[in-house]
Design a protein that fits this description.
- This protein is mostly helical.
- Helices cover about 75% and strands about 5% of the residues.
- A two-stranded antiparallel ribbon has the order 1-2.
- About 25% of the residues are buried.
């Protein structure tokens, strides 16, 4: 047999070493993943045991999560309304007996999400540029902006809503400010990451021709990141609609108050009606936003 050339032998040696290194990395990663999984599952109570009485009267010990799943099905079953084909109209009217109030609160929920998203977009757009490593004027401004965005998105919307309800009283204003502030932090991170992934050659060209920092942003970065900004904004609007339906639990407007009352009074069919309204609304918004996003991105791609 012909002896292998030194180059091929070196390649085989390097390949074997790289393969062993990859196997070690995969093994270590698998072990770390398994440790984290079992630690998190134990902390979350997935492995907790509980005593369950069977239908024949026997008591057995089983995992708590498996013992509780039938109760979840029982709860969901209670939310289903009784509908008969012969009296379908009356049954539906009885199911959505407060539809006028619910639709008004649903509109309030959507408007809260809309205004909060608008505030979040403005704040995130302005702060995303000094929060980008490739665009920040200096390290102090970069760290200051990033810490602010981290703080406002770390605090949950419900906590912000409680704070603003204390400051401004019960009503939609607290919800708008709470969701808008949280959206500023979340969108600011996404926008800044889009800025950092932008091609810097146009920016360098504008800078070389004497353009200011604002000119570099306006003509070098913004045209590149507009599709990402639109996509992130529409997604955040959908998230904010769901968030605005929850913060009503603390008196910040929207459908949340109705959900809280229904849960407190154990009006299970009212819960399913409210969830169905939110579900249909999210589906419609998702379809509309997808079409809008595709049209705008298509137009942007054509240079319009």
């Amino acid at each position: 047999m012909t002896a292998l050339s030194p180059a091929i032998q070196q390649f085989e040696t390097d390949y074997a070493a790289a393969r062993k290194s990859a196997l070690r990395i995969n093994l270590v990663s698998t072990v770390i993943f398994a440790i984290c999984f079992f630690a998190a599952a134990s902390m979350g109570g997935f492995f907790d045991m509980t005593d369950v009485t069977l239908s024949n009267g026997d008591r057995v010990s089983m995992w708590k999560i498996w013992a509780g799943l039938p109760r979840l099905g029982e709860y969901l079953y209670k939310t289903l309304p009784v509908l008969h084909w012969e009296t379908l109209g009356a049954d539906l009217a009885n199911w959505f007996w407060r539809w006028k109030v619910w639709l008004q609160l649903l509109l309030e929920t959507i408007l809260i999400a809309y205004l909060a998203t608008l505030l979040g977009v403005v704040g995130a757009f302005l702060l995303s540029f000094p929060a980008s490593r490739n665009l920040a004027p200096n390290a102090f401004v970069l760290n200051l902006t990033r810490r602010y965005l981290e703080i406002v998105r770390t605090v949950p919307e419900l906590v912000w809503a409680l704070i603003f309800v204390f400051c401004f009283g019960v009503g939609p204003l607290a919800g708008v400010l709470a969701i808008g502030l949280h959206a500023t932090g979340a969108l600011g991170k996404l926008y800044s990451e889009a800025n950092e992934n932008a091609d810097m050659r146009p920016v360098e060209g504008i800078k070389a021709s004497g353009g200011s920092w604002f000119d570099q942003i306006r003509y070098g970065i913004v045209p590149q990141v507009v599709p990402n900004i639109i996509s992130y904004t529409l997604l955040r609007f959908e998230i904010n609609v769901r968030a605005s339906s929850i913060i009503g639990f603390v008196g910040a407007g929207g459908l949340g108050q109705e959900i809280r009352v229904a849960m407190s009074l154990q009006e299970y069919t009212d819960l399913s009606a409210l969830f169905l309204l939110i579900f249909v609304t999210v589906i419609i918004m998702d379809t509309v936003s997808e079409n809008v996003r595709h049209r705008i991105i298509g137009l942007t791609g054509k240079g319009v």
